[in-house]
Specification:
81 residues, two-stranded antiparallel sheet, two-stranded parallel sheet, 2 helices
């Protein structure tokens, strides 16, 4: 998720192609949310390394609404407090 002038922009990476594991996190990213059932390990490791170097929080959610709600509430508290 990136924020430009107060608006929220969501970037979706399907993660199904090998090239997705080599993508770069966009400048200005404020949070990364993995919503999935199974993670591509190369994608996860690449994004995690980039997030750590940028100081961006990463949240992992299962593909269920209750799983999202708790994780995203915690993320909202960290980003917008």
């Amino acid at each position: 998720m990136t924020s430009d002038s107060g608006s929220l922009r969501v970037e979706h990476w399907p993660g199904r192609k090998a090239a997705d594991a080599r993508r770069s996190v966009s400048p200005g990213t404020r949070a990364i949310v993995f919503v999935c059932r199974h993670l591509s390990h190369p994608l996860m490791l690449n994004v995690r390394r980039q997030a750590d170097s940028l100081g961006v929080p990463v949240v992992y959610c299962r593909r269920t609404a209750p799983g999202w709600q708790a994780e995203l509430e915690g993320l909202r508290g960290r980003l917008f407090s």
